[in-house]
Design brief:
This protein has 395 residues and is an alpha/beta fold. It is 37% helix and 23% strand. The chain has one domain (10-56, 64-384): Rossmann fold, CATH 3.40.50. The chain has 13 helices and 16 strands. Helix 3 crosses helix 4, helix 8 (240-248) crosses helix 10 (305-314) and helix 12 (334-344) packs antiparallel against helix 13 (348-362).
Length: 395
């Protein structure tokens, strides 16, 4: 998998070396090994050094991956179409909360379209842990939004502490939450740890799992109705319910919408997927070594959408629906939005770019089927967003 991966420059290598030293120190302080979830957390979020905390460009054609909002405005416009009825139900004092705002592209396009739909929130809050991304978001939105829309944008360091009404939306956030890795050995559950070899390099090693991870794996098996086979290895996020509860506990009335790539549980833990879904991305190349260039490589694992459905309902929300990204977008005015923008296009290049947007967002070989959308509601109607292609029966 390392073939044709471009080498980082000297400054990037020094940056990766500093983060590697920090992780080595954490391993030594822990007695020789840390859980893979802790390694992933440090690799992605260590202050000033982690992949999402440092300054290198991550998103877009010049970065490591392209998200749906980066392809153009259609994705954000369809999300706005889905969420506008909720915001109108709630009245004037509302918030649209976006954890992990990326480049700011989604916020820009969503706010403009919500204004056209007469469904603007009083505040558009971006919960962004990266100081660098926060600055880039601010610069982008200040330049590209009308002053009255930009005035609604605020940045948060933590989830809202006071009760609020509105919409919580994430795109490609869940896949970046640190994942625990496990393996089955006979009747035992092992946890994948990260240690050091004789030269200080990172190596994987298995140790007996603690009660939290063991209980989470047994819950999977209870749901599946069978024990996982000897040698099976994968990942899960036992702390997902706590993360979601912390993020949404002050949302009194409103909707939650999550878009990400993943699988329902039976597909996720099928024998054909032995080995799990952990992978890395660097300059649009897929990397199978999670220890290659820490801080320069995005680490990700797919979402167990059954686990997300459980976490959302456990947090006190009603389940609204689950479908592929393609179905979600077509069910929320994608064809109409495409025709409208096509009619406004003034040249062939713009029309071609719009067609490419639709293909990237909806084709099965692109984002259309591998990415899925799931919604929840409390005190509002959000089922309308999932009228096309509801897949809840697969959960």
């Amino acid at each position: 998998m390392r073939t044709h991966i471009p080498d980082p420059d000297e400054a990037a290598r020094r940056h990766s070396a500093r983060l590697s030293d920090l992780i080595r120190n954490a391993i030594r302080e822990a007695g020789g090994a840390i859980a893979f979830a802790r390694y992933m957390e440090l690799a992605l979020y260590a202050p000033g050094l982690g992949y999402y905390s440092a300054g290198a460009r991550k998103l877009g054609r010049e970065g490591d991956f392209v998200t749906a909002p980066e392809t153009g405005p259609l994705f954000a416009q369809c999300v706005a179409e889905a969420c506008a009825p909720v915001l109108r139900q709630l009245g004037q004092d509302t918030m649209f909360l976006e954890p992990g705002g990326g480049s700011g592209a989604f916020a820009q396009d969503a706010l403009v379209h919500l204004a056209l739909l007469d469904a603007l929130p009083a505040q558009y809050a971006i919960l962004e842990p990266s100081a660098d991304l926060r600055q880039r978001q601010l610069e982008r939105l200040a330049v590209n939004l009308p002053p009255d829309l930009f005035a609604r944008v605020v940045w948060l360091d933590s989830p809202p502490a006071q009760p609020w009404n509105g919409v919580l939306f994430t795109n490609e956030v869940l896949d970046a939450l640190p994942a625990s890795r496990f393996a089955i050995s006979g009747d035992n559950v092992l946890e994948e740890m990260v240690g050091l070899d004789a030269n200080g390099g990172f190596v994987r090693e298995d140790r007996t799992a603690d009660a939290t991870l063991t209980d989470a794996v047994r819950h999977l098996e209870d749901y599946l109705g069978e024990t996982l086979p000897d040698g099976f290895r994968s990942e899960l996020r036992p702390h997902l319910p706590h993360w979601l509860q912390a993020l949404s506990e002050t949302l009194k009335r409103g909707a939650m919408l999550f878009v990400d790539y993943g699988h329902p549980r039976r597909d996720y833990y099928a024998s054909s997927r032995n080995g799990g879904t952990l992978r890395g991305f660097h300059r649009h190349r897929l990397i199978d070594d999670p220890f290659l260039w820490p801080g320069l490589t995005d680490l990700t694992a797919s979402v167990d959408f059954t686990a997300l459905a459980e976490a959302g309902t456990q947090a006190g929300f009603e389940f609204s629906g689950y479908c592929s990204q393609a179905s979600f977008l077509f069910g929320n005015q994608l064809a109409h939005r495409f025709e409208t923008l096509l009619g406004l296009a003034t040249d062939e290049a713009t029309r071609y770019a719009l067609s490419q947007q639709v293909k990237q967002l909806t084709l099965p070989g692109a984002m259309g089927e591998s990415f899925q959308a799931m919604g929840f509601a409390r005190g509002v109607d959000f089922d309308h967003a999932f009228l096309l292609g509801d897949l809840r029966w697969r959960l």
